[in-house]
Amino acid sequence: MANLSQTFAHYAILAPFFISKNEAKMSLTSPKIAIVMGSKSDWATMQEATQILDQLHVPYHVEIVSAHRTPDKLFQFAENAQQNGYEVIIAGAGGAAHLPGMIAAKTIVPVLGVPVKSAILSGVDSLYSIVQMPKGIPVGTLAIGPAGAANAGLLAAQILAMNNAELAQRLHQFRQTQTQSVLDNPDPRI
C-alpha cells in the first residue's frame, strides 16, 4: 500500500480525507498506543492497524514481544505499559496466541487482541486462544486477520478520541468518507 501521509503545502493528504497540518498536530505527541505481536511473521497482519493509525495521524509504538520465546520481556512490557504512557495495547498473535491474554493479566491498560490467521487452522485456534479469557482478565477480541487488525486500530483510536476532540473529528471524517465512497459507487460492475 502506498504511503498515506504525503504532505503538500498547508495540507496533509490522508487518504481518504484532507485535514490541515495544524489539525494533524494532535495533543498526542508521544505514542499512547502500543502494537505488539508474537513474531515478525505477524507483521503482515498487524501493519493494517498501523495503516489506520497513520491515516488518522495517531502515533504508536510497534514491537515484537513473544509470549513463549521472550516471557520476561513480555512481563516487563506489560508491567510498565501504564508508566510508559500507553492507554491502549493492540496485541496480535497466531497459533497458541497467548500474548494478548498474558499482557492483560499483567496490566490494567485495555488490551485489544487480534487473532492472526494460521496455516493449520486458519486462525480459529488463535481466535479461541484470545477470546476465551477467564473472568476478571478481559481482552477485547477482534476478527481474525487483517480486518481484525484494521478494526483494532480504529477501536484504539476511538478509545483515545473519548478525551481528544481533534481525534474524534478525524474519526467522524473517516466514517463520512467511508460512507460517501459506498454511495458514490453503487454499481458493483463498474
TrEMBL record:
It catalyses: 5-carboxyamino-1-(5-phospho-D-ribosyl)imidazole + H(+) = 5-amino-1-(5-phospho-D-ribosyl)imidazole-4-carboxylate. It comes from Aggregatibacter segnis ATCC 33393. Catalyzes the conversion of N5-carboxyaminoimidazole ribonucleotide (N5-CAIR) to 4-carboxy-5-aminoimidazole ribonucleotide (CAIR). GO terms for biological process: 'de novo' IMP biosynthetic process. Belongs to the AIR carboxylase family. Class I subfamily. One of its GO terms (molecular function) is lyase activity. This is N5-carboxyaminoimidazole ribonucleotide mutase. Its EC number is 5.4.99.18. Residues 31-182 form the PurE domain. NCBIfam families: purE. It holds the Pfam family AIRC. Keywords: Isomerase, Lyase, Purine biosynthesis.
